[in-house]
Amino acid sequence: MTNVPNASFKQQLLTQRAAVVEQLSALRGGQVGRAEASAEHFSETQDSRAQVNTARELEFALDEHESAELAAINAALSRIEAGTFGQCTDCGVQIPDARLHAAPEAPRCIACQTEFERNHGGSVN
User: Fold this and answer.
1) What pLDDT is attached to residue 53?
2) Measured distance CA(7)–CA(85) in Å, rounded
3) Label partner for 123 (CA 20 to 30 A): which of 51, 72, 113, 117?
4) Using CA atoms, how far apart are residues 124 and 59, in angstroms rounded to an integer?
5) CA-to-CA distance for 71 and 76, rounded, in angstroms?
6) Residue 35: which residues within 8 A CB-CB, separation 6 or more?
7) Which CATH architecture has domain 3-120?
């Protein structure tokens, strides 16, 4: 890849990173305590405790997802700096531009990503 496309991808990744950092701040800041605050408005019934626990689990899952996305973005930015952006981290082939435009944080080509998901039971770009 040339430096011109990398500059475009870098800007896209920096924009994504700023959005994810903002979302994480919101989750870890005022919104994380919302479950505890709303517990005060419920009577101490089993249903209200279940609602609070469900809200907490959702907040933690969102935080985990956003943290993983931030790590993937930072890894992609590191690959740009290292000059390896756009190369599959598993097999070394060039990742198609269409994939990079759709998911610039993607570390793998489609074939390697499919194999990764098959072996690890999920999607991690």
Assistant:
1) 80
2) 11
3) 51
4) 20
5) 9
6) 52, 55, 56, 59
7) Up-down Bundle (1.20)
Domain boundaries, the chain: 3-120
Cα angle at 23 between 20 and 29, to 5 degrees? 135
Q: What is the pLDDT of residues 52-103, one digit of tens each?
A: 788 888 888 888 989 999 999 999 999 999 999 999 999 999 999 999 999 9
- In eight-state DSSP terms, residue 2 is -
What's at 89, amino acid-wise?
T
Taking every pair of Cα atoms in the chain, the longest distance, rounded to a whole number of angstroms, is 61
Cβ atoms of 57 and 79 closer than 8 Å:
no
User: In the block, which residue shows the tokens 């517990």?
Assistant: 39
Provide the phi-psi class of 100: left if phi over 0, else alpha when psi is between -120 and 50, else beta.
alpha
